[in-house]
Design a protein that fits this description.
This is N-succinyldiaminopimelate aminotransferase. This protein has 380 residues and is an alpha/beta fold. It contains 14 helices and 13 strands. It binds glutamine (GLN). Glutamine binds next to loops.
């Protein structure tokens, strides 16, 4: 293994999901729902297979899906993208992130990213030979400190990597914060890559795409995917919306990573994106009640709980339960009470900051959450 990838030999999600299978524990670690997406959408993929949509789709994605993505951006955010030149379909948001890093960075460039960060950010920045520069979001509310962000930007900074709603903290960037990010990006002439896969999962503060802020559309690569919104994390249909030169750049890398993917899922996701508002509203109402259910349970079980404004994750501090170290806590948890969670420290460069934090996913059936809470209550 080369030096660039030396520190990335395994992912915490695979490790913790394997532990859950091995111990029969309830898996609140890796973020995936235990209920599949809408039946009509599942049927649309089966119909597509039956209709013979099983060979390579067009490189940028099928036109029907690119049009549906552009319509979604317009319907929810008033953003206009040309489906032919400003939208690219990818193999999940994961490929969109990797292709963006590989396409937009020169070796030695610096990328300023919000820490804790989703694990593929650090790995793909490294694959591009670039250097990550974290700006830390701190408990209890994980607000972005704009002075720290400004201080992290140097003459070597090429891009900002933003994620809102934010995994793992559940923070949702506010309009004034986004405006400040925009001001810095414009002043320092930076590209911004923004990962908005949890765009429809907010519980009060609505999601605001960075591309809607004045002056940002032309310098922003917006990434999202079908996995969270439509509860089909295994389908791996993602997308990029950006100006033509940025989409062309990302596409140059994408075409040699997977070339294309997910032929029969592409028309199904085109259908899904056109679901009525009631679907999208139902999604966040449902998740909000799950959030509250798990947060109340975790607090009763003795965790310090940082209630999230978005995503399907909640961050907790385990010091009240007699642990300084979230990794030790998560290793013990399956045998102590049959639950799996993720130690948030793996998302931090600043290990002290993340040491005692543990992330739980609440995208699970109510009965599963209740059972997990019952088990966690035995920790007291
Ligand atoms: N995004 C999911 C999480 O944060 C997992 C994705 C993965 O396993 N790569 O838990």
């Amino acid at each position: 293994l080369n030096r660039r990838l030396n520190e990335f030999t395994s992912t915490i999600f695979a490790e913790m999901s394997a532990l859950a299978v091995q111990t029969g524990a309830i898996n609140l670690g890796q973020g995936f729902p235990d209920t599949d997406g809408p039946a009509d959408i599942l049927q649309a993929a089966k119909d597509a297979i039956d209709a013979g949509i099983n060979q390579y789709p067009p490189g940028p994605g099928i036109p029907e899906l690119r049009t549906a993505i552009a319509s979604h951006q317009h319907r929810f955010y008033g953003l206009t993208y040309d489906p032919d030149t400003e939208v690219l379909v990818t193999a999940g948001a994961t490929e969109a992130i990797a292709a963006s890093m590989l396409a937009l960075l020169e070796p030695g460039d610096e990328v300023v990213a919000l820490e804790p960060y989703y694990d593929s950010y650090a790995a793909t920045i490294a694959m591009a030979g670039a250097v990550r520069v974290p700006v830390t979001l701190r408990a209890p509310d994980f607000t972005l400190d704009l002075d720290e962000l400004a201080a992290a930007i140097t003459p070597k900074t090429r891009l900002l990597l933003i994620n809102t709603p934010h995994n793992p903290t559940g923070a949702v960037l506010s309009l004034p914060q986004l405006q400040q990010i925009a001001r810095l990006a414009i002043e320092r002439d930076l590209i911004v890559v923004t990962d908005e896969v949890y765009e429809h999962m907010t519980f009060g503060t609505p999601h605001i795409p960075l591309a809607t802020i004045d002056g940002m559309r032309e310098r922003t690569v917006t990434i999202s995917s079908c996995g969270k919104t439509f509860s089909v994390t295994g389908w791996k249909i993602g997308w990029v919306c950006a100006s033509p030169p940025l989409v062309a750049a990302v596409r140059a890398a994408k075409q040699f990573l997977t070339y294309v993917s997910g032929a029969p899922f592409q028309p199904a996701i085109a259908t899904a994106l056109a679901l009525p508002d009631s679907f999208y509203e139902g999604l966040s109402i449902d998740l909000k009640s799950k959030r509250d259910r798990l947060c109340v349970g975790l607090a009763a079980a003795g965790f310090d709980v940082f209630t999230p404004a978005g995503t399907y994750f909640v961050t907790t501090d385990v010091r009240g339960l007699g642990y300084d170290d979230g990794i030790a806590f998560c290793r013990d948890l399956p045998s102590r009470c049959g639950v799996v969670a993720v130690p948030s420290v793996v998302f931090y460069d600043d290990k002290d900051e993340g040491r005692s934090l543990v992330r739980f996913a609440f995208c699970k059936k109510d009965a599963v959450l209740d059972e997990a809470i019952d088990r966690l209550m035995t920790l007291r």
